[in-house]
Amino acid sequence: MRLNEGMSHPAAEDGPEPGPVHDLGVVAPQLRALRRRAFLTLEGAARTAGLSPAHLSRLETGQRQPSLPMLLALARVYGTTVSELLGERVADRDAVVRAADMEPTHAGGWTYRQSGAPGRGMQALHVQVPYGSQSDIVRVHPGEEWLHVLRGRLRLRLGDTTHLLGPGDSAHFDSLTPHRIAAQDPDGVDLLFVHTLLQSPTAALCLGPTPGETP
Prior knowledge:
- The protein has 215 residues and is of the alpha+beta class.
- The chain is built from five helices and nine strands.
- Strand 1 and strand 2 form a beta hairpin.
- The longest helix is centred in the first third of the chain and has 14 residues, at 24-37.
- The protein is elongated.
């Protein structure tokens, strides 16, 4: 059962809970493990899912039974399926992604190609950044980012410091550090990009803060 990312499911805490959806002994530790795999704090995950930190803590310790809307919301936050949240075995994913299968996605002037399997703890992308696109967007969100310049020169601003990266250079940083990415030269820049923030569609990963986040 894979979550439809286009759907919105409020995770209301009030009111009576539906009947048990699964064995609490399996669900509670799985919720905690998947949150940690997504590199999210209890507070950050709860806020994004529409829960209070105290309520999410009770779910993770087995003191409360999650409802289906809560599971749907948490699956979206953790970039996984309700089946995996319930501890069910996830079908094996292909380890190899062929170049012919990397369909380009265009958004905001950038071109993205998915370079890894969906539903993992990280997302890998091949990103082409043209000159002058999105250079004024500052991004702040939970997770980590790693990038490696393949072609061209990249201007990376982390907090108050600007770095110029050339082919072969890499950067690895906490995404809660305000950051901005731009091509330095008119020919643009190509880079490999690995991200731990899975709750956004692929094309939104680099575009800026997700709804509810403050630049």
